[in-house]
Write a structure and sequence with these properties.
Elements lengths: L3 H13 L14 E5 L7 H10 L5 E9 L2 E10 L5 H8 L3 E2 L2 E2 L1 E5 L10 H10 L7 E2 L21 H7 L21
Antiparallel strand pairs: 1-3, 1-6, 2-3, 2-7, 4-5
GO molecular function: nucleic acid binding
Protein name: RRM domain-containing protein
């Protein structure tokens, strides 16, 4: 266990590093970071919160994930930087799922690399680019994705497909079901 003196020296060293500076000027930002949201919240819950709080001009809601698990944070994008102060004021100290949330203006989140089509997603998974971190866990398809973990490492996609054949899975390109195995 580290002593108090060691902990303090780590804190002093951490303070000496330059902090990342914002790339967007505060009056040009279009994103709001909402913290302390329930981990069970959905984008539709956040849109309902915006409507209830009279926060207008919201164009997009993205939940933040850490390894495909909700982090309790979300980004809300407004249409124009001019609308940011009024939207931020409307969302201050709002309640979602019985929890008090906090909102701040932030730079846009790092967007995941583009991966077009089933082949592009499979290639990105092979190269380790899909990590499940960031807005919408770094994947597309607007919440129509399912992540399964705890499966044996040697299981094949065909085995999983056989286990799930009694369920109706949404098709993607040309009605083909898509399955990507990620090494975590």
């Amino acid at each position: 266990m580290a002593s108090t003196g060691t902990t303090n020296s780590f804190r002093r060293a951490a303070r000496s590093f330059p902090r990342a500076r914002s790339t967007a000027k505060p009056n040009q930002r279009t994103h709001i970071l909402i913290r302390d949201i329930p981990r069970t919240a959905l984008p539709s819950d956040l849109l309902r919160l915006c409507s209830k709080s009279k926060a207008e001009n919201v164009s997009q809601v993205s939940l933040q994930y850490n390894r495909f698990r909700p982090s309790g944070r979300a980004y809300i994008t407004v249409n124009d930087p001019m609308h940011l102060p009024s939207t931020l004021k409307a969302l201050q100290s709002s309640m979602l799922g019985g929890k008090m949330t906090s909102s701040t203006s932030r730079d846009p989140p790092n967007l995941p690399p583009r991966n077009r089509g089933a082949e592009g997603r499979a290639e990105a998974a092979e190269r380790g680019l899909i990590t499940g971190n960031g807005p919408d866990a770094g994947v597309t398809n607007g919440g129509r994705n399912v992540v399964m973990w705890g499966l044996p490492s040697r299981i094949t996609q065909e085995n999983v497909r056989d286990m799930l054949k009694s369920f109706k899975l949404a098709g993607f390109e040309g009605g083909q079901e898509e399955m990507v195995k990620l090494e975590m």
